[in-house]
Structure formats: C-alpha cells, structure tokens
Design brief:
- The protein has six helices and no strands.
- The two termini are 50 Å apart.
- 0% of the residues are buried.
- It is 55% helix and 0% strand.
- It has a domain at 10-75.
- The protein is mainly alpha-helical and 107 residues long.
- One of its GO terms (molecular function) is sodium channel inhibitor activity.
- One of its GO terms (biological process) is ubiquitin-dependent protein catabolic process.
- Its EC number is 2.3.2.26.
- It catalyses: S-ubiquitinyl-[E2 ubiquitin-conjugating enzyme]-L-cysteine + [acceptor protein]-L-lysine = [E2 ubiquitin-conjugating enzyme]-L-cysteine + N(6)-ubiquitinyl-[acceptor protein]-L-lysine.
Length: 107
C-alpha cells in the first residue's frame, strides 16, 4: 500500500477533527478521492487516448457533435442485418459459403 496526499502537503496538516470540520473534511476527502481515482490516476492514459482520438477527429470537429451523435459516428447503428452481412460476405483462403466452418459461423 502507499499513501497519497489528497491535498498538497495534506499529510502535514495537524488539526484535530472535531465538530464542523469533520463534515467539511469528509466532503473534501470524498471529492478529492473521486478526483484522484477517476481523473488524476488515469490522466496519463486519458491524455494518450485524447491525443490519438484527436488525430482521427480534430477537437473542433468533435465539439459540434453531442454524445449521441459521436456514438453513432463511432459505433454505427446498433442493429446488424445478418442476412445483408451474409449476402455481401467475401470468402478467401479456401473458404466458401458451403465450407463447414462458414456454415457453423452462420448458425
């Protein structure tokens, strides 16, 4: 285990927790833990993701879409027309529509 200061030099604060500052400290602690766990701890990874993502879609372009439109652009429609997919499949490397593996796949 290791210790992380929730506040700069927080481990050096030597004030007794009594009365109103207990609730204040509790609220601060919860918000700082959330900030550290979901933001600070993964900041490096999020920056790398954002850098790669904005190579594909410039930030100015991303800003014009809401979250639903971005999901549609990135993921497409949720429905898959299996018959259409099957009709337009191209088989390679010795596979054909009658191959046992292909038959198994479409079941």
């Amino acid at each position: 285990t290791y210790q992380v200061d929730l506040k700069p030099n927080g481990s050096e604060i030597m004030r007794p927790l009594v009365g109103q500052n207990v609730e204040s400290f509790g609220n601060l602690a919860v918000s700082l833990v959330i900030q550290w766990r979901f933001v600070n701890r993964v900041q490096k990874q999020m920056n790398a993701f954002l850098e790669g993502f904005t190579e594909l879609l410039p930030i100015d372009l991303i800003k014009i879409f809401d979250e639903n439109e971005l999901e549609l652009l990135m993921c497409g429609l949720g429905d898959v027309d299996v018959n259409d997919w099957r009709q337009h499949s191209i088989y390679k490397n010795g596979y054909c529509p009658n191959h046992p593996v292909i038959q198994w796949f479409w079941k």
